[in-house]
Amino acid sequence: MATTAGYLARRAAQKERVRLLYRSALKDTLNWAVHRHLFYQDASDLRDKFETNRHVEDPDVIDRLIDDAEAQYRNFQHPDPYIVPWAPGGSKFTRNPPPPQGIEIIYNYGKEN
Amino acid sequence: MARWLVRPMSSHDAHLTRDEVVDRLVDVLKSHPKVDPSKVNPEAHFEKDLGLDSLDTVEVVMAIEEEFKLEIPDQEANKIDSLPLAVEYVANHPMAA
């Protein structure tokens, strides 16, 4: 297969999709399998699934595999994922917002003169 | 181990020093099963020096997220390719613990 620029660009885009999918799937695995020994087992299973399709060359087949995997990921998402508290969606997000500008404490209120 | 004992109680005064960040990142990398511990130095590139895969890099970035209790957005996570970049990111993050 001639490695034209279009082919390489398509493969690079697919590589990005696979990275994103692996990252999301790994985080999701951590959401489901909280205990570390279970998580390591599930994470190595997930990695094996990605490894079996490592040497596929045809871009159409790769696209179909990625689409199937993304559909599987969407079906398997955890309903209550762990989000770091200060991140959007976490419990500490905007909990203590900085006060508005221009407000200051007047230390001798009522005793100015 | 003593750093857990002298941890400040407020979450906004506990700023990480760069040396601590580098030490912790090197520990994270050394404890990854696919990494050869003798090759890890503070200038290591994940794919070129340590021979990691792109999926392995994803795993390493996730280990870094867990170590420092960060949430790295996907755009930034794709760019973290080497240890110096990771040190830069973590040291400049306001919420790195």
Automatic annotation (TrEMBL), chain A:
It comes from the Eukaryota. GO terms for biological process: mitochondrial electron transport, NADH to ubiquinone. It comes from Zizania palustris (Northern wild rice). Its main location: mitochondrion. Residues 17-72 form the Complex 1 LYR protein domain. InterPro entries: Complex1_LYR_dom, Complex1_LYR_NDUFB9_LYRM3, NDUFB9. Transmembrane segments: none annotated. This is NADH dehydrogenase [ubiquinone] 1 beta subcomplex subunit 9.
UniProtKB/TrEMBL annotation, chain B:
The keyword Lipid biosynthesis applies. One of its GO terms (molecular function) is acyl binding. Pathway: Lipid metabolism; fatty acid biosynthesis. InterPro entries: ACP, PP-bd_ACP, Ppantetheine_attach_site. GO terms for cellular component: mitochondrion. It is found in: Mitochondrion. Residues 19-94 form the Carrier domain. The keyword Hydrolase does not apply. Keywords: Electron transport, Fatty acid biosynthesis, Fatty acid metabolism, Lipid biosynthesis, Lipid metabolism, Mitochondrion, Phosphopantetheine, Phosphoprotein, Transport. Its main location: mitochondrion. Pfam families: PP-binding. PANTHER family: ACYL CARRIER PROTEIN (PTHR20863), ACYL CARRIER PROTEIN, MITOCHONDRIAL (PTHR20863:SF28). Complex I is composed of at least 49 different subunits. Carrier of the growing fatty acid chain in fatty acid biosynthesis. May be involved in the synthesis of short and medium chain fatty acids. Accessory and non-catalytic subunit of the mitochondrial membrane respiratory chain NADH dehydrogenase (Complex I), which functions in the transfer of electrons from NADH to the respiratory chain. Belongs to the acyl carrier protein (ACP) family. This is Acyl carrier protein. The lineage of its organism: Eukaryota, Viridiplantae, Streptophyta, Embryophyta, Tracheophyta.
